[in-house]
C-alpha cells in the first residue's frame, strides 16, 4: 500500500515525542533549558581531563609498588646466586657411570618427525644441544666416531676418511682395519683403563683395536657384527648392571646403525626414516625400563648422540670429472674418493697447485655442467675451521662439494635418488643430536651447539679422571655439567 507523506506538523510532533522518550523520567526539558554548545564542550573536556588524571594515577601507583629499587634488586640477585643446582648424589651405584650411545645418521630434526616418548623423556629431564651437535669434517662415520672418543680432529687421530691410502706405505685403510698403526690418539676406553677403571664397548669404531693398555677384553668388547639385533645389544649392556658394584664398567658404549641405513637408501624425508626413529625410540625405552628395574636409571649418565646428519641426493645433481678434459685430465687412478669429499693425489712429477688452478678454471668457466657446485683447494688452503690439513694421510687436493651434489668420473645412465653425508660440517643438514640425562646433567637444560670433539673432556670430567691431550676445551664441561658437591 502507498505510504502517506508526513506533513510539517507531523514531523514536529514526532521529533518532540522522540526527544522526551530519550530523557529521564519526570524531566520537564523545555527548549529554553537546552545547554549551549559551549557548555557541552566544557563538560566533555572536564570528563576527559578527569579520565586522564585517573589513568596517570593508576599507572604511577603500579610502577611505584611493582618496580623494586636498586637495593631490593641486589638483594634478590644475591639470594638467587646462592641457589646453585649441584649434581645429584648416587643412590645405588658406587661410582659414576657414563653410557655413550650412538644412533648413526640421526640428523638433527628427526626427533620432531613423530612421537618419541622415550627420547623426549631424556630431553625434558636432561640436557640438550638446542640446535644439534656439530660433527667434524669430513662428516663421515669413522672419522666422527673416533673424534667423539678421542677429542681429536681427524687430521690428528689419523682416520681421515672411511677409506684411504697411506701415501708412504701404500697400505689401504678400510672400516675393517684393526691395526694400531692407523688409530692415533687415546680413545676413552683406553683412558679409562689407564686410570684403573673398567670399560666396555659395543660396536664402536676403533674399539676392537688392541692399543696401549686396551686389549679388547672378552665379554667387555664386542666384535662388530651388524646382524646382532638391536634389542640384544641393549640387553647385553643392561646385564653389566647386574654385576657386583665394583665390576660395573665406568664407561660403556652402545651403537645402532639406524637411521643411517635407511637414510642412504631413501634420503632424509622418506617415511622409512620416521619408522626407523620410532624403532630407535623403542630401544631407548627398553634401556630406560631395564635401568629402572635395577634402580639405577637416575644414577647413570646417558649420552645419546649421532655422528652426522643426512641430505637428499639425486642423479641430476652430478659433476663429472671427465667434463674437465678441455682444461686438464683427471685419471681415476688419481682419485682417492669422489663424494661427498673429493680427494685427489696426483703422481710424482705433477704440480698439485697447477692441477687445482686448471680444475677451478674449468669449473668456473660455465661450460662444465654443475661446475659452480664444486671448488677445489690445496689442502693447506682449505678453510681453517675444517681442521683438515695437518696430516700426511690427507691427499694434497681436496674438493668441497655443494650440499646434495655428487662427483663422478664419467657420465652414466644410472638414475637414482637417496641420501648422503660427508659434506662441509657448516651445512645444517649435517648436524646430529646430543641428549644427555643423569646426575651430572641439569633437568630441562638447553646448551648451544658444539663440536663433538668436546665429548671426550665431558666424559673424563664426569668420571673424575685425567684425560689425554686433545683438541677440545678443558673448560667446556663447566658450561654443560652441574658442579659436583
TrEMBL record:
Matches recorded under InterPro entries: Alkaline_phosphatase_core_sf (IPR017850), Phosphodiest/P_Trfase (IPR002591)
Record-linked SUPFAM superfamilies: Alkaline phosphatase-like
Molecular functions (GO terms): hydrolase activity
One GO CC term, this protein: vacuole
Residue stretches spanning the membrane: 41-65
Keyword tags: Membrane, Transmembrane, Transmembrane helix
Domain of life: Eukaryota
Annotated protein name in UniProt: Ectonucleotide pyrophosphatase/phosphodiesterase family member 1-like
Species: Dorcoceras hygrometricum
